[in-house]
TrEMBL record, chain A:
Broad class of the protein's primary localization: membrane
Membrane association type: Multi-pass membrane protein
GO cellular component: plasma membrane
Organism (species): Streptomyces adustus
Keyword Acetylation: no
MF (Gene Ontology): transmembrane transporter activity
Protein name: ABC transporter permease
Stretches that traverse the bilayer: 33-51, 63-85, 116-138, 183-205, 236-255, 290-309
Localization per record: Cell membrane
Pfam families per the UniProt record, alphabetical: BPD_transp_2 (PF02653)
Record keywords, A-Z: Cell membrane, Membrane, Transmembrane, Transmembrane helix
TrEMBL record, chain B:
Localization (cell): Cell membrane
Chain ranges of the ABC transporter domain: 8-245, 259-502
Membrane topology category: Peripheral membrane protein
GO cellular component labels: plasma membrane
PROSITE patterns membership: ABC_TRANSPORTER_1, ABC_TRANSPORTER_2
Keyword annotations from UniProtKB, A to Z: ATP-binding, Cell membrane, Membrane, Nucleotide-binding, Repeat, Translocase, Transport
Protein name: Sugar ABC transporter ATP-binding protein
Main location: membrane
Amino acid sequence: MTQPVSPPRDTAGKIPPVGRLTPWRALPARADVRTLSLLGVLAALVVIGGITKPDEFLDTRNLQLVLTQASVIGVVTVGMTFVITSGGIDLSVGAIVALASVWATTVATQEYGFAGILFTAMLVGLGCGLVNGLLIAYGGMVPFIATLAMLASARGLALQITDGRTQIVSIDSVLKLGERDSYVLGIPPLVLVFALVTIAGWLALNRTTFGRRSVAVGGNAEAARLAGIDVRRQRLYLYLLSGLCCGIAAFLLIVLSGSGQNTNGNLYELDAIAAAIIGGTLLSGGRGTITGSVLGVLIFTTITNIFALNNLQSDVQQIAKGAIIVAAVLVQRRTASTN
Amino acid sequence: MAQEPPLLSMSGIAKSFPGVRALDGVDLDVQAGEVHCLLGQNGAGKSTLIKVLAGAHQPDEGTISWRGEPVTLRSPIAAMRLGIATIYQELDLVEHLSVAENVHLGHEPTTAGFVVRGRTARTSTAALLKRLGHPEIDPARLVGELSAAQQQIVSMARALSHDVRLIVMDEPSAALDPDEVDNLFRIVADLTADGVAVVYISHRLEEIRRIGDRVTVLKDGRAVAGGLPAKTTPTRDVVALMTGRNVEYVFPERPEREPDAEPVLRVRGLARDGEFDPLDLDLRPGEIVGLAGLVGSGRSEILETIYGARRPTAGSVSVDGRTLRPGSVRSAVGAGLGLAPEERKAQALLMLESVTRNVSVSSLSRFSWAGWVDRRAERGAARAAVRELSLRPDNPEVPVRTLSGGNQQKAVLARWLLRGCRVLLLDEPTRGVDVGARAELYAVVRRLADDGLAVLLVSSEVPEVLGLADRVLVLREGRVVHTAPARELDEHRVLDLVMEGTPAS
């Protein structure tokens, strides 16, 4: 184990210069092309928004709103990106957000103030993630089924807790976070949390052993196992991470809406999966990009905003979202096959 | 034969993929009733050529004639309609369907156009299987329950269920035992007697000698020789055409001294019910021990059980006196074991990742602090390991999927080299590695052993075991029937042992 690699022998003769340009050198550029095209779409949307509703769309308050809305689903998407990269799926994210948001806003929890709400939301998220992870990693259940079961039960439990009522938050320090005078340099605190989660997620995926192992498990679980990676433990951690992200998102939602409801986070799973996929994360696992996922979230949120400003109904929005998913994946297949 | 137009004539076939010219003007003539062998190293263009022939790829240039008429093979269905069937190396059967359903997939016998007549399908399937010499395969069984060899027979039955004039077989013998190979050759002979043409792809030159009529050699997307007589062209010439070098199997020299160090690996009474009987084995540093046996003799199972990938029903494995947790790969890897598995792509490699990341995956903790990967150290160490093994290309940042089979195997070895492993388990290390690259791989393994590694080698190619190993354990039906230094054995002796189990005098 401690035996080091001996220095390279001179068997290969002359070694060609390292930095030379080969076709493979273009590979990182391919990822850049994807990021650039997503940025292009986002820029085009901003232009469209600016043209159709010049005064309202480009207003600072509106942009702050868009980013705030993106923050909640964005945090969920960061967790989802890890799960999908590892070859799994988490259908329960929306339901976990709902359960965490109502559990954290019960009268009993609110007695513990700000910290009570924050930690309850995160603990509920972690707890649900733990159940998902145990069922999948050690119970051998298919992620789709295990998280589908969690979706149903977490929503049911959320309804049971609230009895369908909206739970108003009465903690001033929580509510204050959503108000304008706590903005930092014009940036809402919720957006800062989103930014932090994004940066942490990017670093975790690209710079840590945790990220490497997630990619390895998603790329080839059997190879990962035979390479000595504890695949089951890694899977458990991944669903815990997704659950934690849901808990954080639930807290953001509580701040944003000043309440907890059992209908929170409805269809978040689909939005998060869609954002990750158009961002370039492979649904089959083995490749994931946090940057792409965040751009995907921003694109979807901007579309929703532009449509709302132009008084288009949500049915039109849904159709547009569907079309964008199809277009994005088709374009990616194209660029992938020409490389 | 001369006045009759060839059954198939391909001329000037060119096909480019982005960045690669896979085929660069290939000509191929195939006569009815002949076995036409296609030889070439990995990457020479064999797969692309047969995919063009199967209608799966469209050529950029060139013409294809079928019985003298120019044709365009727009799709696999178009090729099938003409009577061209392809049996790919990676079998394309549906595991959850029965044998009969697989054989008739896409052209099921029906009543009123949609009600499948299962009995008819089963009867005709049984007839086909009988013709293929495997009447024991039940057409009603699920394909997933069959052995690899039986699945190949089913694949062949599927090809024959069409009115086939030409069958392409891509390395059909790779997963077969000697007696099954004999059966395969009998089938090929029957087919050609009926006037069916066979395009046969294999790495094994001796097979081409036995059944081939003519040989076309591909190199770098070109046919460097077309229609050579298969039986009389000297091996040396064929190898030279394929590689541009005059080498065949060249084994490194064994060290003169016997390894006398304490065994690093001790296996005591290790067994798995139904797979192999209790096994004792000592492996010393610097020693290469070979396991010879047929497919199904328990070779791979033994390796995987030692490695902890399978849980033993009895016995123990210890490294340097420390007993491993049974059935735990992590315990084995932690103690210094490394496995280069049989199915490289499925069991070892992360195909989407670079060579560096494939090499470093088992040693990440060495390059990380509190989970933080030091990528510079990682790249440096991966580069050193890759150079140590002369892996090509020299740049470890390339995706591992762009490497040839031999270099992919080196990437797996580099992973364990970097881990500082003490015992290397090699399962079919040269499968899918072309002839030219094998000698180099053998040299690498011997050098690692000379540097103090203990190596346990499994191979279905007896010359490989005899040439590379110091000591050989001969397995038959899960039992060690003979142990001897490799230099006291020869191929005949081992084959006798493997088949009969009796140590012939």
